[in-house]
Amino acid sequence: MRHPARLGIALALALATAACAAPATDGSKAGAEPAAQASSRSSSLTSCGRQASFAAPPKRAVALDQTSTETLLELGLQDSMAGTANLKTKIPAAYEAAYAKVPVIAPKIATGEQLRAANPDFVIGGSADLFTKDRAGTREELDALKVPTFVSAVDCPGQNPAGRTPFELLFSDYENLGKVFGAEERAAKLAADQRTAVAKAGENASKLTGGTGGTGGTEQPTVVYLYSVFNGMPYVAGKTGLPSEMSRIVGAKNAFDDVDEDWPEVSWEEVAKRDPDFIVIGDLSERGRPGDSAAEKRAVMAQHPVVSKLAAVRDAKILEVPGIELDPSVRSVHALGLLAAGMKDLGYVR
Known about the structure:
Blueprint: H1 35-39, E1 43-47, E2 50-54, E3 61-63, H2 66-74, E4 81-85, H3 96-99, E5 104-106, H4 112-117, E6 122-125, H5 139-144, E7 149-151, H6 166-181, H7 184-202, E8 222-230, E9 233-236, H8 242-250, E10 253-254, H9 268-274, E11 278-283, H10 294-303, H11 311-314, E12 318-322, H12 332-345
Helix pairs in contact: 6-7, 7-12
């Protein structure tokens, strides 16, 4: 979540829904070519409007955020990494051994000095705002130093072909990075497994029983995604965030689809006005700020004089998912699976 309160929590459940293979932890790169062959291969890509060429697979890649780090670890590329930064939550158990091999160049957002000290040959970020003068440096500055950069396609809406969904953009990230690092086989398997998980969650849409909320009365149950409570105010998923796409896949409707932002700040009264059929809470327990945990968010809603009267709150039609998974990442299909299963448990799907 890209505002001061947008941090995440550790993965609370196994990634079974994602059907992802665990990363290699023995120093090998599953799915990669033999070292001698890979070292001589060249590649190129276009990322967020900028071209990058590689005479050989990178050996000193730096991931500027946890999203990028976990993608590289899932692809078994820990031995090709010279650094990671901006860890927002605990690394899932499946990645711990691989993550331990990667130097942490900055506990928070990396500066240009910290990045250059790592002597990277490739820099990867999940969002374009990591590449600014007061952070890691602009992509133009790094280009001038002959260091290619990569930004997730999900954060480059103006550069993407029309009609590509956020999940397909995520999968294109896996495939492009696999090509650069010589890990095409593993990247293809990861993308295929996650496409299968998305398709399975999409089976909900043909089995809806209908919603009954104040904005509902239609076949699609309405949902509010409560990510953060910051200074007492709720931050919810808007039209451009990944939860709107998750809703579409499972046959629900994001109640704030008319707000053209990822995570807008709204009022509790506006949440009550939308009167959703159910509520999804992003649990941020490990961040430790007031109002972060799912339990605290439930308590705030139960005590609010207006929100507490909503049927979704009175009848406990509330689902909990790891907050970090509501932003695009290798983990997001797990939250999608929890959403699909939760809708069945709440009776919205046959």
